[in-house]
Amino acid sequence: MAGLALAAAPDAIYVNGKIVTVDARFSIASAFAVAGDKFTAVGSNDEIRKLVGPATRVIDLGGRTVTPGFADSHLHGAGGGPGVDLSAARSLGDVYAAIAQRVKAAPPDEVIVSNSDWHEAQLKEQRLPLRKDLDAVAPKNPVVLVRGGHEYILNSAALTKWHIEKTTQAPEGGQISRYSDGEPNGELMDRARTLVTLPAPAMTTEEQIESWSTQFRKLNAAGLTSVRQPGISLDQYRLFQEMKRRGLLTMRLNILLSAPANPDAAKVRAFIEGAGVKADEGDEWLRVGGMKLLIDGGFEGGLMREPYREPYGKDGTYRGLRLITADRYTEIVKELNRLGWRVGTHAVGDAAIDQVLAGYEAANAERPIAGRRWAIEHGFIPREEQFAKMKALGLVVTVQDHLYLAGPVLVRYWGPDRAGWVTPVRAYLDHGVRAAAGTDSPVVPFPPLWTMYHFISRDTISGGVLGADQKITRAEALRLSTADNSYLTFEEKTKGSIEARKLADFVVLAEDFLTVPDRRIEQMKVSMTVVGGKAVFATSPFDRATK
Ligand SMILES: [Zn+2]
């Protein structure tokens, strides 16, 4: 009979598991087979055992749960770096101690910089250290605390070094925060940070490769197999290409290139022409997903229709920061659309989302973008009438668990109603708007099981449950962290679920994701992570079985 070729035996079969496939029907299997970098069959133990050949490894899952590899739709890095590490600080005292230690070892004019992966919500006092606080531990050395992607906090020596004084005006789209006497208190938001030039850590190519390899391994250990990285420079993209050439990637990457600084349409066109990068170029390891643009700030600068809560609202005048005018933004977006590029725009507040939708609609009127999966990054505070527009444009919203980290701080800035609505995943799904989960790491810690725990429970690290009406189911949370990420990057046919012919990216979990109490999800350990059929992280007993 024609076509009765002997199918090659799989390289490995995995049996005795609870395989949560996240296929269209969310079916559960017991076993699967892998050949090369793909799943070749999924089914019952008996069905899969029949496929064993003489060289097939048989891995007994011992009843553990397997899911598709986790993905993060918006991740900058795993945190860490050469700066002062504040990620473990739990009080202002811890912050000062970490800085004091670095000061002691430094010559008096050396600029001391922190890593960005910390937030005041993790501190007992729930507030930022400011200029005078930092002066007490660093009277001579300039200190710049970098926090997340939107804030610097400077001590007096640093303010002096960069000539930021009582009379200094913040550039458009930025803010210099002040004490009540008008003196800068050290906090610089968004574009005000351009007043400061941080010393660049001089790293060789090999050191950079080493640093990224280490970060990807950390992410692999949390179950991540794919990340989308918004705001990658051309140099970073070239570095990732080099890592791919050398076979060093253990993470599948989808990158959004950063727009040039202070962009306009002509600059963006010149940048793309000069870069020699084609829209959507790449393969299953490294692909260009478009260009990243920014409308507003973050926790302190999200652009709102209504003022911030007092005293942050400054007597009803402060609505957040607009980093680019509506006209200029729309011109850029239209230009990118003409060039065939896709766009992901950072928009936190409802007024920022208004601006994105106006820009995308203008582009869509020239050449349809529906079906091209343009994105809104974050989308903290969408308003009712915005959902239909998002759906009509076929947008995907990348949703993260900022509230998990910063809940009480957001309540202070925006009041309980707005804060409790951040980020309304239930509402997005109920309105038929596509979403893909992530963290914004290192702004928010990267473990995807924490993100899923937050979306399922709406619990926060230090502020209890906020916005309980926005809870989603475990199946929805898992889909947002796997298959729906693949949809965002146009890869739903090749990855994101455990199905024959898809890439063998999967996670073995120590406990049953679908049945343990909610709290256990936050604590759950990853036993093994596999990318393209190869284990990139494994603990006992799989560390031996997979060698
Ligand atoms: Zn981000």
- Give the proportion of residues in helices: 25-40%
Percent of residues in beta strands = 15-25%
User: In terms of structural class, how would the helical and strand content be classed?
Assistant: alpha/beta
Radius of gyration: 24 Å
Distance between the termini: 39 Å
How are strands sequenced across the largest beta sheet?
8-14-15-16-17-18-19-20
Overall description:
This protein has 547 residues and is of the alpha/beta class. Helices cover 31% and strands 21% of the residues. The protein is built from 17 helices and 23 strands. It has an eight-stranded parallel sheet. It has a six-stranded mixed sheet with strand order 3-2-7-21-22-23, with helices on one face. Strands 9-10-11-13-12 form a five-stranded mixed sheet. Helix 8 (326-338) crosses helix 9.
Provide a compact summary of the structure.
By secondary structure, the protein is α/β, with parallel strands linked by helices. It has helices at residues 45-49, 92-105, 131-137, 156-161, 205-221, 234-245, 265-275, 326-338, 350-366, 384-392, 402-421, 425-430, 448-457, 474-480, 483-488, 518-523, 542-545; strands spanning 12-15, 18-20, 28-29, 31-35, 38-43, 57-60, 65-68, 70-72, 112-113, 143-147, 151-154, 174-178, 184-190, 224-232, 252-258, 286-294, 343-347, 375-378, 396-400, 434-438, 506-509, 526-531, 534-538. It contains 17 helices and 23 strands.
